[in-house]
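Intended use. Records like the one below are meant for learning the mapping from a protein sequence to its folded structure. Do not use them to infer anything beyond what is encoded.
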Amino acid sequence: MAGDSRFPDVDSDGSEKNEEMEIVVNVGGVRQVFYGDNLNQYPETRLAELINCLSGGYDSIFSLCDDYDPGKREFYFDRDPDAFKCIIDVYYFGEIHMKKGICPICFKNEMEFWKVDLKFLDDCCKTHLSEKKEELEEIARRVQLILDDLGVDASESRWKRCQKYIWKFLEKPESSYPARVIAVLSFLFILISSIVMCVGTIPDLQVVDAEGNRMEHPTLDSIETACIGWFTMEYVLRLISSPNKLHFALSFMNIVDVLAILPFYVSLTLTHLGAKLMELSNVQQAVQALRIMRIARIFKLARHSSGLQTLTYALKRSFKELGLLLMYLAVGIFVFSALGYTMEQSHPETLFKSIPQSFWWAIITMTTVGYGDIYPKTTLGKLNAAISFLCGVIAIALPIHPIINNFVRYYNKQRVLETAAKHELELMELNSAEGKAASSKSELEDLVREGKEGPFYSSRLKVSHSDTFIHLLSEEKHYRTRLQSCK
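Structure written out for the chain above:
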């Protein structure tokens, strides 16, 4: 092969036209035959460059492929053959579909190697690729957050370090055992506060004031005050330690926290100052209205429950299905209420006085509740009720499956992202350990070469060993491969 700068089967004057040329490409053991007229449709691609570089010598050829057989005119590539089979569709169909089971990121790298533009990738495959990119970005973000928590910047002031510690202490229960205890305490305070709110409405546990009005028991009031004090302290500390206070204040869960504690202070203000500005009865009505806002604190449980967060995300992603459900029910309610009103007019004791009043009957019938306060009495009305019941069951059942799929998909995705982030950290620690081990080994070789064999050598050996040992890694984790860590 060496010494000849031209192909033996190509004339030096280039008489063989590129369009009529035939080449064989061997990718990972899979042979494919291509013709110049097909490849030259996209001259910027690597396969088209193989056609155009035949007269450029072996230097030009080996800059494009891994090996070449001039007798067979066969180019060899050590690439993924499955991805290659999908990519060559662009020469025949003008678009590329990614086969199921291929990693989208690896497929994108293969397309870049073959110099095929991503615009030829079908829209459904682009969506899959963008989802994988978002997953990788989320993994990188989680790893960066963990590294930021582990790292300490010596240039930061003491207040900044204290601020970070408080934020991690209150926002990240997995960071330490005390943080986990605080999260459990916060969860218990939410439960106790919710239970006190419910128990306080039992008449037997209420007391009567001097004016004969029922009010909550003083003991329950004291428990409520203690819970509100905890919620207030927790919110203030999180607000002070938050890196972005505007984003913190506008976050949905933090707005819920404000709504959970605000009614207590407003009620306290109205009780002590409102009597001077308005009548006592109006003050009591305002206080009673504010007390009902305490139900907002039950939503604080979502902060400590990944299941509730996943359910919220699934419902958010299922707005289309929920919209279809409401549309089906709205159409059914209108149709069956109108039919029920019309069919029941012949009965002298009809309960269907108007179509708007029949809406209530249609709602409780289609949703399979059936209170029995309004019901049909004629045969046609009962038949209409049976049909509306069946249609309601079908309408409610249709969007349930997509909503459940969204829930399961998001839940599994979060678990995969958490596992991937942990494995990425393990790989970083392992690479760090290998780098330090290599430097320590070279250092020991230098010491042996210099003949330093005394106590000083032993101390250097111990220091070297302690520098390369990572407590977060167990013995078996040192033998994990990159492929195992990605699973």
